[in-house]
Write a structure and sequence with these properties.
Elements lengths: L2 E2 L3 H6 L6 E5 L7 E5 L5 E7 L8 E8 L4 H16 L4 H12 L2 H16 L3 H11 L1 H4 L9 H13 L3 H21 L25 H14 L4 H13 L3 H5 L6 E2 L4 E4 L10 E4 L2 H14 L18 H10 L1 H4 L6 H14 L4 H8 L2 H4 L2 H7 L5 H18 L7
Parallel strand pairs: 1-2
Antiparallel strand pairs: 2-3, 3-4, 4-5, 6-7, 7-8
């Protein structure tokens, strides 16, 4: 570890056949070194002992020539001052970097490091943030972020009458900042204690037995141009699964002999594989769809152009256009999932079993007992519950209506 009097001329011309640290011999910048790699890369480092820790540490101050000798010495002197005050200069620099980071930067970091690799809803989150948050408060520094900035992002969405989306924007932005705090990019979350916009709570609509009969009976006429949508609606009700999972059903996910449908984690909302027992009624609906899709079809509900599966957005728009034909208060495909869950509750199916049918891990894996110690899959109970629900629908007369 050679100690030299660092000069601009020396720094600019020095080379090394191996990685070498050239330490500045100035007392005021003790520990400052120019690290020269075999390939010629030059990096400014500072060797120091953190407060309360006996082990030496090294921090990077920058690279040459982007960081000059004079700037490196200034940074070393500042770091030494922090040490004299009992502070770790690495923590101080990290806090300063966070202060300079903007909302737009932390959003992109959140998307890159957390959402895209882990969340199935990443694209929707990215779309909402790009549309509603980044253009409004993207330039705000994290150190200046205030509770009013949440309102600045959410209020325009509310003004457009999109209360549900406003609630989701609120949750997205709050999740970004909570993630930043958990990582140490921020010291606190200014949005803690804020409540979602009024009216942005999830829908609670469930269909009564009479409404279920009306929907099922009217499907052939109301959705006459889309047999696929008719069957997707029916499967949502019979199985209790999400419309996106039903519309994207792949033939490879089915084992009709074993009477099971296995949804891979890549297609579930929570990223966990989900096994759905199939009743006779569900299998009959699927067989009819497969007959229309064709022998070698990859998807049970393929697009008309043969590329991919029918989008849940297409299903939603189809139902929205057909609402008046049913003569009921507005309902969605997701309301059918809620209706199935409520119907099974009415039939005495325990919450833990309903949670497994719906793939709701907040119920099935809540706490240490269920999350760690209870590894039972409830396959038998799930099948019995779905069979009981199908029998109830038969009793209503809906499953007797031709699919």
């Amino acid at each position: 570890m050679p100690r030299v009097s660092l000069t601009d001329r020396f720094v600019g011309g020095v080379k090394s056949t191996d990685q070498t640290d050239y330490f500045d011999d100035s007392a005021s910048t003790r520990g400052l070194a120019l690290r020269v790699s075999k390939g010629g890369r030059k990096t400014w480092t500072l060797l120091f002992t953190p407060p309360g820790v006996g082990k030496r540490a090294r921090m990077t101050l920058g690279t040459y020539p982007a960081t000059s000798l004079a700037r490196a010495r200034t940074l070393a002197i500042e770091a030494r001052a922090h040490l004299q005050q009992g502070q770790d200069p690495r923590a101080v620099l990290a806090a300063q970097a966070a202060g300079a980071m903007t909302v737009a930067a932390i959003i992109e970091s959140f998307l890159e490091k957390h959402a895209r690799p882990n969340l199935r809803s990443a694209k929707e989150i990215e779309r909402r943030l790009a549309k509603n948050v980044t253009p409004v408060i993207g330039s705000v520094k994290l150190s200046d972020l205030h509770r009013r900035d949440m309102n600045r992002a959410v209020d325009p969405v509310l003004k457009r009458g999109r209360r549900v989306e406003a609630g989701r924007v609120f949750e997205d932005l709050r999740a970004v900042i909570r993630w930043a705090v958990a990582r140490g990019d921020m010291d606190h979350n200014p949005f803690d204690g804020m409540k979602k916009p009024i009216g942005s709570t999830p829908r609670e609509r469930t269909l009564s037995d009479d409404e279920i009969v009306k929907v099922w009976t009217d499907l052939p006429l109301a959705l006459a141009r889309s047999p696929a949508c008719q069957r997707i609606v029916k499967l949502c009700l019979v199985t209790g699964q999400r419309v996106g999972e039903v519309s994207g059903l792949e033939t490879a996910e089915l084992n009709l002999d074993a009477r099971t449908w296995i949804i891979p984690g890549a297609r579930t909302k929570n990223g966990h594989k989900h096994v759905v027992p199939l009743s006779d009624s569900a299998i009959e609906i699927i067989r009819q769809a497969l007959a229309d899709a064709g022998k070698d079809a990859e998807f049970v509900f393929p697009n008309k152009d043969g590329t991919g599966s029918l989008s849940p957005l297409v299903v939603a728009k189809t139902l929205l256009r057909a609402q008046e034909r049913f003569g009921l208060a507005r309902w969605t495909a997701h309301d059918l999932r809620r209706s199935a869950a409520s119907g099974m509750a009415r039939l005495g199916v325990p919450p833990i079993v309903r949670g497994h049918i719906l793939n709701h891990r907040t119920i099935t894996k809540a706490g240490v007992t269920l999350g760690v110690y209870n590894q039972y899959d409830y396959a038998k109970e799930k099948r019995e519950a779905l069979e009981r629900w199908a029998s109830w629908l038969v009793g209503l007369g809906v499953l007797a209506v031709a699919a």
